Amino acid sequence: MSLTAWALTTGEAGMRTQARGLARAVADVVLEKTVPPPFHWPWRTPPSSERLHPPWPDILITCGRRSVSRALTIRKASGGRTLTVHVQDPRSRAADFDLVVAMAHDRIPPGGHVIKVATALHDLTPDNLAEAGRSWAGRLAPLGRPLLGVVIGGDLKGRPFTLTDARRLLAGLQAIRAATGAGLAITPSRRTPPAILALLAEAFAGDPGVFLWTLEGDNPYRGILALCDRLVVTSDSVSMVSEALATPHPVEIFDLGFPRHAAFVQRLVDQGLARRFDGAADPPARQGGPVNATDEAAARVRGLLQARTGVVG
Q: Which of 127, 237, 267, 286 has the fewest Cβ atoms nearer than 10 Å?
């Protein structure tokens, strides 16, 4: 029996990755849907991704606060046939969903319809990481070994990623280069401030041991996660940190002091899953192998499906 899933989100990249990743792990056919914006011109024709109408999916996975009411409406309209899963704290009754997947630092208590996971869900798998590794192996090989991957985000509301932060990161990377001869593969994001991109470009201009993505051409992000011996990720993105932890490589977090993510970062450090980046030459010792909360959530969804229909997704 082929299972269908909708990944219904409010459209942000991090929300889409979480819902899509879980949907792909449990269903054969996955459609991404977006909650319409709260305000729009009355003559605007909504795209197909915003149209929510029967036939209802076997599984509905939502993420983002504005998706909650839509999920409850679809659950009722389907006569309860659609299995409803919400990712993150819905800020409503957990019992209104078949399953809520919240992170360990969320306030919603575990138990009943709620499971708590250590990292954010995502759509990285061993297969797509291996594919990215094959695609980028030749391009990153000239940097040599050991190879340090650096994943850089950007500002968060109320806390910018400043040039002072960037100089601190740069000093740590240069210290590792000097001590170990490591190559650097650096990928900024679309959110990285231009001044920080310029700082890095100037610092590493002409250095054959450094690759710095210019935001043009193929995105090296997954290739870097697949191939580097050690990963440094800025703390502004829970999703980027979580995806780094889904690899077998040691992970260090460049802590920008974002209050929203403080508990998440500290818990990973306390559990030995990551270390705060300080430019130390030796990579951190990592407790255990890859951490993939998507697999944990998918197993619970499959159990619910099997109990309900006898079908395993």
A: 127
